[in-house]
Design brief:
- This protein has 28 helices and 31 strands.
- The chain is α+β, with helices and mostly antiparallel strands.
- The chain has a domain of 200 residues: Immunoglobulin-like, CATH 2.60.40.1730.
- Helix 1 links the parallel strand 18 and strand 19.
- Bound molecules: phenylalanine (PHE) and zinc ion.
- This is Aminopeptidase N.
Length: 871
């Protein structure tokens, strides 16, 4: 934690580094009470920077102990250098020299999980974004790339496995039971991609031959008890390697590719060169302990980190404002990979749902920022849905505007031109401009303007001339520091349908103006427009559809995404009507037309069960909140529960038939088809449970007891645990605990199920869970399962009118901030949205933010979020 005033860093202040480091040699003496790090840096003045007499400035965490500092073998006196606020300054250094620096670290006391720390007895590192400066003094910025050679020394019995980036080149014994291994990484890399691991780890090994014939050893390491949960990650890795060769022409470039699973990790996973470190939740998978969602996350994240080897490592970011250069592009790549491995439409629906729910909310909140932010206090706060998911949408739009072939040419040029460099999002777009001959300067506003654009569409039809005209107006609401937005360039994918569903026109319109008209000739009847097909741009689209038009699109649209979206629009409209009625004290009702449409979907056995399940899922409370002017938590909850129950009862027989149809009794597989069948089966069970009758409780219990996989078991448990059948709920929760208490990841689910239970007494339940032995406040996964699930998914309980949820969260944040600022800052998000709620709630949320603000010694992470939220 830093006591200095937290300062703001600006993109416009970027300066190239004055000093370059060609080679970095590191030696780690890993011991139980301390670790000594000797770093030898070969330093040269940057020839591209004119002022050669600049002092050498290295970053280094304030708490880090410096025990030796030499230049070309000469020990420096205390008067030769200054240390202040995270920086080490050495005056009067030669043009080119070797700096030796020894630091002493206390990894076992590192609870922030940045730099070198211990996770369940093993040593590991996390350096992105600025963790390397907690290991040694270094120009810890991504545009300083260096060749690393790393030696690890440790007790051989406790830490038989010693890993770092690149290839092992030498090894030996040191006496007293200690051994050492030296690793050499031939590819220059920024310090944020450095990693080491030391532990007693089990290994799954396989191999892969690249197209050009390079043999690559694939090694996935985990604790011994988890060795049986690594096969799926291995298969996913091989699929990703093949896919990147086929789709992007990218091959792997080292002899070894390693993944290590660790239980204590702030994020999902990290793409360190040749040595990925993964949160166990993103790599371990076994049918008995992992849900379908978990399997798909493993596949997606393994691919994501692998793809970073090119989009991130070989070509990296010039500075952290360019984060989306690697993250947006890599998310786009992993989404396309998952779409190719599974169902394209379902993947798109899932991604857009996340974007609409969480990214749109971020874009409308106090932390809103462009895909390429202009300033930050703490860069860790900018690993956001905007940089990742909206950034991926921006790359997707380039793909749509240019077409697959030109896009591939552009990416080839980008990789070739910038291999080994640290570059900017402008460089990425420039490559796309060059291959397409297009001017993309207006398009680049997607990188510089924050906020979610709004498209308002009107249409006109002249039966005389057969001319149909679409008028599209775009606008974008103000965001912090940006009052006025310029119009965007965007692809608007459109279909025109006749009333019977026949397609009259299909194509892509390109928007550039604030208002534009598009004319279509020879249209015999007024068509129904299918707009923004496949969600061709990350915008909010408004068009005044009638219920009948939406029902027609739900039935006939040839674009699967828009078929689903039409159903969602209709549900949202009906739910919003019920919310109003609830507020006015009127009886709520469910539309008969919706029941009929759902019945049709539910009984048509020719449809893909995965798509049917998507269509019959009501939008979440969080998404309904995002759409509301003022969020009325209770009305949203009550209206949604009412609709769920009404649709459950009206279609009870159909739900049961769908359940039985999908309950095939086949052995578990994690392919898209089987996952789709299970998703419809468990959705059907959830509606049966919502119907609230005893036989369905028995059905759920039966599924709980007989299922051989976590997807079905957890689905049944969740439904019972969130029902009014409290006795059975307690019984199953207890049984589940007994069965799985030694599986940490399963216990995370157990915590989350209870934390998201909306029935009476939720706060008491989470409070007692926080005392439970399976809970560990130092483990970020456990914190997310308990605090994250309560505040993010149990909305009615978190937003209890007495403000108790807010006080509870603020208490947690203040405690966690001293221990792990990154995690504290992330868990804080729900409070930052206070302005969207009714006065009573808003005031109480604001009071908790103010209480945090008044606390001395906040971390930069939490300080930035709290102070910006209070503006
Ligand atoms: N770069 C990682 C990824 O997206 C995310 C990450 C960021 C992990 C910071 C750890 C710390 O793949
Ligand atoms: Zn990433």
């Amino acid at each position: 934690m830093s006591s200095k005033q937290h300062e703001t860093i600006y993109l416009e202040d970027y300066q190239p580094p004055a000093w370059l480091i060609s080679h970095t040699e590191l030696r780690f003496e890993l011991e139980e009470e301390q670790t000594l790090v000797r770093a030898q840096l070969r330093i040269q003045a940057n020839p591209a920077v004119a002022d050669k007499r600049k002092p050498l400035e290295l970053f280094g965490d304030e708490g880090m102990e410096l025990s030796r500092l030499c230049i070309d073998g000469q020990i420096l006196e205390a008067s030769d250098y200054q240390r202040e606020a995270g920086c080490l300054r050495i005056n009067n250094v030669p043009e080119s020299f070797t700096l030796e620096c020894v630091t002493r670290l206390l990894p076992h006391e590192n609870t922030a999980l940045e730099g070198l720390y211990k996770s369940d007895g093993m040593f590991c590192t996390q350096c992105e974004a600025e963790g390397f400066r907690r290991i040694t003094f270094f120009p810890d910025r991504p545009d300083v790339m260096s060749i690393f050679r790393t030696t690890l020394v440790a007790d051989k019995a406790r830490y038989p496995v010693l890993l770092s980036n690149g290839n092992p080149v030498d090894t030996g014994e040191d006496g007293e039971g200690r051994h050492w291994v030296t690793w050499d990484d031939p590819w220059p890399k920024p310090s944020y991609l450095f990693a080491l691991v030391a532990g007693d780890l089990a290994l799954l090994e396989d191999h892969y031959t690249t197209t050009s014939g390079r043999e690559v050893a694939l090694r996935i390491y985990a604790e011994r008890k988890d060795l049986d949960k690594l096969d799926y990650a291995m298969q996913s890795l091989k699929n990703a390697m093949r896919w990147d060769e086929e789709v992007y022409g990218r091959e792997y470039d080292l002899d070894i590719y390693m993944i290590v699973a660790v239980d204590f990790f702030n994020m999902g996973a990290m793409e360190n060169k040749g040595l990925n470190i993964f949160n166990t939740s993103c790599v371990l998978a076994h049918p008995r302990t992992t849900t379908d969602q978990g399997f798909q996350r493993v596949e997606g994240v393994v691919a994501h980190e692998y793809f970073h080897n090119w989009s991130g490592n070989r070509v990296t970011c010039r500075d952290w404002f360019q984060l989306s250069l690697k993250e947006g592009f890599t998310v786009f790549r992993d989404a396309e990979f998952s779409a190719d491995m599974n169902s394209r439409t379902v993947k798109r629906i899932e991604d857009v749902t996340l974007l609409r729910t969480a990214q749109f909310a971020e874009d409308a909140g106090p932390m809103a920022h462009p895909v390429r932010p202009e300033s930050y206090m703490e860069i860790s706060n900018f690993y956001t849905l905007t940089v990742y998911e909206k950034g991926a949408e921006v790359v997707r739009m380039l793909h749509t505007l240019l077409g697959a072939e030109l896009f591939r040419k552009g990416s080839d040029l980008y990789f070739e031109r910038h291999d080994g460099q640290a570059v900017t999002t402008d460089d990425f777009v420039a490559a796309m401009e060059q291959v397409s001959g297009r001017d993309l300067s207006q398009f680049k506003r997607w990188y510089s303007q924050a906020g979610t654009p709004r498209l308002q569409v009107h249409d006109d039809y002249d039966p005389q001339s057969g001319e149909y005209c679409l008028t599209v107006r775009q606008s974008c609401p103000p965001s912090p520091g940006q009052d006025h937005k310029q119009p965007y360039q965007l692809p608007l994918s459109v279909g025109l349908l006749a009333e019977d569903g026949t397609e009259l026109y299909t194509g892509m319109l390109e928007l550039t103006e604030e208002e534009q008209q598009f004319r279509f000739d020879n249209i015999a009847r007024r068509p129904v427009p299918s707009l923004l097909r496949g969600f061709s741009a990350p915008v909010k689209l408004e068009y005044d559809y009638t219920d009948e038009q939406l029902l027609m699109l739900l039935r006939h649209d040839s674009d699967g995404f828009n078929r689903w979206d039409a159903g969602q629009r209709l549900c949202i409209r009906l739910l919003q009507e019920q919310m109003l009625r609830y507020r006015d004290g009127l009886a709520m009702s469910c539309s008969e037309a919706l029941v009929i449409a759902w019945r049709q979907l539910l009984t048509d056995e020719s449809l893909d069960p995965a798509m049917v399940a998507q269509c019959l899922r009501l939008p979440s409370e969080a998404q309904l909140g995002e759409l509301a002017e003022r969020i009325d938590v209770t009305a949203i909850h009550e209206a949604r529960e009412f609709m769920r129950k009404a649709l459950a009862q009206a279609l009870e027989q159909e739900w049961l038939q769908a359940y039985q149809r999908c309950d095939t009794g086949d052995d578990y597989t994690a392919d898209a088809e089987a996952i789709g069948r299970r998703s419809l089966k468990n959705l059907a069970l959830s509606y049966l449970m919502a119907a609230g009758r005893e036989p369905w409780l028995e059905l759920a219990r039966q599924q709980y007891e007989q299922s051989d996989n976590m997807t079905d078991q957890l689905a049944a448990l969740t439904l019972v645990a969130h029902s009014e059948f409290r006795e059975t709920a307690d019984e199953l929760l207890q049984a589940f605990y007994q069965q799985w208490q030694h599986e940490s990841l399963v216990m995370n689910q157990w915590l989350a199920v209870q934390a998201s239970d909306p029935t009476e007494g939720a706060l008491q339940r989470v409070n007692s869970l926080a005392q439970h032995p399976v809970f560990d406040a130092r483990n970020p996964n456990k914190l997310r399962s308990l605090i994250g699930a309560f505040c993010g998914q149990n909305l009615a309980s978190f937003h209890a009118e007495d403000g108790s949820g807010y006080v509870w969260l603020a208490d947690w944040i203040l405690t966690l901030d001293r221990q792990n600022p990154q995690v504290a800052s992330r868990l804080l998000t729900p409070l930052t949205r206070w302005k969207r709620y009714d006065q009573g709630r808003a005031a109480q949320m604001q009071a908790q933010l103010q209480r945090m603000m008044d606390t001395a010694e906040l971390s930069a992470d939490v300080y930035e979020v709290v102070s910006k939220s209070l503006v």
